[in-house]
Specification:
The chain is elongated and about 115 Å long. The chain is α+β, with helices and mostly antiparallel strands and about 650 residues long. The chain is about 15% helix and about 30% strand. The strands form 13 sheets. The chain has a seven-stranded parallel β-sheet with strand order 16-17-15-19-20-21-22, with helices on both faces. It has a four-stranded antiparallel β-sheet with strand order 5-6-4-7, sandwiched between helices. Strands 30-29-32-33 form a four-stranded antiparallel β-sheet, with no helix packed on it. Belongs to the peptidase S8 family. It comes from Anaeromicropila populeti. One of its GO terms (biological process) is proteolysis.
Length: about 650
């Protein structure tokens, strides 16, 4: 294939660059004294951090995950014993810790190792960027028209082939020395989508751009930047009490400030691809929709010409900030070649959708994984770099295991700082096209989960022979196709009615298909079950789409529905049938004569609940008791009568027979 020939030739030329338009890597080997993953290595020598690996911890800081069984008191105690200048709780049992120098850092790590409380310890990894700007020259372009292209209410510049490719964007690929033709129709097919939804309301969707910041004054991004309306900009006060001072446009987790200015240009370019407002004729994928860009700056500022890095700590804090403040989609045009366990675990547990750049080493990602793109979770989409001729750029990573889809990523025209526009290339540019599509689907459709959005995007990919065997879908991004895909699972509504005097309840179930497929099956099981437990609708008790489930015992019940397209959903219903909490008698000591009777009248709390009593006597020669609580005195002596409810609550009565 032509694109593979380019891939082989480009590989040597990229050796020193490593990644173009992609947040690259400072390769640092991982450390963990408990092997939390097959991708992590153990770097311990006789129970302490091996000296040969001290330099892996470049900032005298590290991240630790304590064992779940350690307990808060023990964790607080061991941290207090460490010689640290900074410690911050992250999530679950995970902490960021920093010492003032290497000696104190190593001592702290060894103390944690010997305590037996740490489940894993890892460096504060560094992610870096070396993106390339393609400056347009006359020699680079063939047959490019200066005319703007009109389509309905939108004016699309010819430079924006990713949105609308008319076949007029051929260019010189300087790495392989060939002109790359532009094939009409090789774009994300956004115009039909924009037209289809123009009469629909666009719900606000927040997209977190986890990157190098943004030019907040760029005219092409005005009205598209997320504003924290509960915060007063620049007053030095955390007005909304979310733990971040002055986070008006987002937050800078690299410096722990509200300054999200972009000194690199990467984040501003990514932001424009997602949601440029049409100023100067440059549009983002979001078009005129109500998509807002939350800026989460994770890359430290650097001097001119120096490479900039983002740490695991900054990225993890940034993702946590985004989720805390309402983001639905995270764009991660960044990566490195080392598995980052704590970051991976948080991403996996998040309700957000993560769109990740696959990397620009020009290799099968399985042979040289780039993280987080290579994390094959159901809330991650990994994106390759598509050229305007429908083939992969030679620098793009690929792989049917680990790369999901291709999107425009070569010669992408977008916003850059200082209120200007320029081209960039790389999977960093491809990922935000997918991010923009995900945001549009959330904005114009109801009830979509992150997995449903992912399914719509991947199922809607346009298959191309040139991509077969290179990406999992074998195709390129198509927003209109994704919009038409039915990935919506049926809805389940329930209403629980408890009949406390009868010790039973009922769950009224109504299942309806949100999409067009129709409900295939509705089932239920007792217990907190996962969708997989119903085995695609073949395991469980079958009920009608509208029906009632009779319940006779308290507990959790799981309702399951699947449509004819295989979209599944579950709803867990907790049912509590009141039972007696206490039983008592007006008299607990009785004296009666032989041959006489006495009627016990126990009462329970709460009142009105169903109760069934059992009565027993410790000495039937003295007194017996019937199933209705009637005592009969049989002979002189004493007996202890026990009254017990169906759930084990009991009271006793001492009977003396004279």
């Amino acid at each position: 294939m032509k694109c593979f020939a380019g891939k082989k030739r480009i590989k040597r030329k990229l050796a020193s660059l490593f990644i173009t338009g992609f947040l690259a890597v400072n390769i640092i080997e991982p450390f963990s004294y408990v092997q939390a993953s097959a991708q992590e290595s153990i770097w311990v020598d006789s129970g302490v951090l091996a000296e040969s690996n001290w330099n892996q911890y470049v900032g005298n800081d590290f991240l630790v995950a304590f064992d779940e069984s350690a307990g808060e008191v023990a964790v607080a105690d061991i941290i207090s014993q460490l010689d640290l200048v900074e410690n911050e709780f992250l999530y679950d049992e995970c902490y960021y810790l920093k010492a003032s120098n290497q000696t104190k850092m190593v001592s702290s790590i060894n103390t944690l190792l010997q305590s037996g409380l740490a489940a894993s310890i890892q460096p504060n990894y560094q992610y870096g960027t070396t993106d390339e700007v393609e400056n347009e020259t006359q020699d680079d372009i063939q047959d490019e028209t200066e005319d703007e292209i009109m389509d309905t209410a939108y004016t699309i510049l010819p430079e924006q082939w990713g949105l609308l490719n008319t076949g007029e964007n051929a260019y010189l690929d300087r790495y392989i020395g060939e002109y790359i033709p532009s094939i009409a129709g090789v774009d994300i097919n956004v115009i039909p989508f924009w037209n289809a939804v123009k009469e629909k309301e666009s719900k606000e969707v927040i997209v977190a751009v986890i990157d190098s910041g943004v030019d907040i004054n760029h005219t092409g991004l005005q009205s598209k930047l997320w504003i924290n309306s509960d915060e007063v900009a620049g007053d030095g006060i955390d007005n909304d009490k979310n733990g971040y001072i002055d986070d008006y446009y987002g937050y800078n987790t690299a410096a722990s400030t509200s300054d999200v200015a972009d000194s690199n240009g990467h984040g501003t370019h990514v932001s424009g691809i997602i949601a440029a407002n049409g100023s100067s004729g440059v549009w983002g994928v979001a078009g005129a929709s109500n998509i807002k860009l939350m800026q989460v700056k994770v890359f430290a500022d650097s001097k001119s010409g120096e490479e900039t890095y983002a740490s695991s700590f900054a990225i993890l804090r940034g993702i946590m900030y985004a989720e805390q403040n309402g983001a639905k989609v995270c764009n991660l045009s960044l990566g490195m070649t080392t598995y980052d366990g704590l970051l991976a675990n948080y991403i996996k547990s998040s309700s957000m959708l993560f769109v990740c750049a696959a990397g620009n080493s020009g290799v099968d990602i399985a042979s040289k994984p780039i993280y987080p793109a290579y994390l094959e979770y159901d809330n991650i989409i990994s994106v390759a770099n598509l050229r305007c001729d429908g083939t992969l750029n030679g620098s793009s990573n690929y792989g049917i295991s680990g790369v999901d889809i291709a999107a425009p990523g070569t010669r992408i025209y977008s916003t850059i700082p200082n209120n200007t526009y320029d081209y960039k290339v790389g999977t960093s540019m491809a990922a935000p096209f997918v991010t923009g599509v995900a945001a549009l689907l959330y904005s114009y459709e109801d009830g979509l989960s992150n997995t449903a959005v992912r399914k719509k995007i991947l199922s809607g990919a346009v298959k191309i022979d040139a991509l077969s065997g290179l990406v999992e879908t074998g195709g390129r991004l198509d927003v209109y196709n994704a919009y038409l895909v039915d990935a919506s699972a049926p809805s389940i509504t329930t209403k629980t009615t408890v009949y406390k005097s009868k010790a039973k309840a009922s769950i009224k179930v109504t299942a309806a298909d949100i999409g067009t497929a129709g409900v295939k099956a509705v089932l239920w099981k007792k217990g907190a079950k996962a969708a997989a437990d119903f085995k695609k609708g073949t395991s469980g008790t079958v009920i009608a789409e509208t029906s009632s489930v009779a319940i006779t015992a308290s507990g959790t019940y799981t309702i399951y529905a699947v449509d004819t397209n295989g979209n599944e959903t579950i709803k867990k219903v907790k049912v509590t049938i009141p039972t007696p909490t206490k039983v008592k008698l007006s008299k607990t000591k009785i004296t009666i004569k032989k041959g006489k009777t006495y009627q016990l009248k126990p009462v329970v709390a709460p009142t009105g609940v169903y109760v069934k009593y059992t009565y027993t006597s410790s000495n039937k020669k003295a007194a017996t008791v019937s199933s209705t609580g009637k005592i009969t005195a049989k002979g002189k002596g004493t007996a202890t009568l026990t009254i017990k409810t169906q759930n084990g609550k009991k009271v006793t009565c001492k009977v003396t027979v004279q």
